[in-house]
Write a structure and sequence with these properties.
Distance between the termini: 42 Å
Strand order of the largest sheet: 8-7-6-9-10-11-12
Oligomer: single chain
Helix content: 25-40%
CATH superfamily of the largest domain: NAD(P)-binding Rossmann-like Domain
CATH architecture of the largest domain: 3-Layer(aba) Sandwich
Number of strands: 12
Structural class: alpha/beta
Order of helices and strands: EHEHEHEHEHHEHEEHEHEHEEH
CATH topology of the largest domain: Rossmann fold
Largest sheet: 7 strands, parallel
Radius of gyration: 22 Å
Strand content: 5-15%
Amino acid sequence: MKNVAFTLVMMPPHTPVRRRWAARVAQEDIGVRVLQPETIDDAKRDIAEADAAFGAIPPEVLAQAKRLRWLQAPQIAPPAGFYYPALVEHPVVVTNLREIFNDHIGAHIMAFVLGFARGLHYYLPQQIRQEYAPRPQDTGVVHLPEATALILGVGGIGCEAARLCHAFGMTVIGVDGRRTEAPEGINEMHLPERLDDLLPRADFVIMTVPHTPATEGMMDRQRLHRMKQSAFLINIGRGMTVCLDDLVAALEAGEIAGAGLDVYEIEPLPADHALWSAPNVLLTPHTAGFGPYLDDRRLDILLDNCRRFAKDEPLRNIVDKATCF
């Protein structure tokens, strides 16, 4: 029988995919004891002897944790309520699943960039109306080698977006609260305090920031007004970072040239929302991360962190809990 390195609780609810993950973790040579409580009451019992957990832990379960040192969050940016005061104050280290969407979301960002650069926000509505009306040859096109992309949030997704923008010849400016050195493809790096000064320089403002108290509503009417009238806003991060009513007002007033959104303050976006009929918008239904191999990548991170935890090595994708609440 294997020696038990540590006990891991897989929090309910259990899906077939998560049950397969639990079985795979239990097979590891490091000797992980995996518990799969079926109910929250069962989880209260099992968490008392657990060193680690996967999933969301409600406060009443966390209160029973005596040995918990590591919590693997089941998403990149878990929904509101995942982080609460007791969890933030608890010594447990939280990790997340960031990096798994980099290539998929990077491609989605470039689909928006190229769509706007080549005038698809004009031609798609014309297609629906069966109109054949090309714009003048010297209008409606953004020449990317002369364009600037301002990327808000230079994590894994932001870095991939920067790399792709740079490959099309764009000048890329990054804004991030933690990263100070410019990664590949980024010409300049700045702290968030410089955002208002940087917005007027951008032809594309690309948002990949998470939803935190500091980022909620960060793109409001005042900041939208600081953008060029010829600039486009792209948000694939979190919907709560852009005030939709302000965005609609800015679009209708012609204060910016257009917007590409994959996330929204309200999801699903209501059928009667004014954004649907706002001018020059490209909208997708929170699908930027869609693509193959995602469950494999999630499992890889969970297994990697299990191995690291058993060896008392630094964990992958540690979260700064204080910035999430």
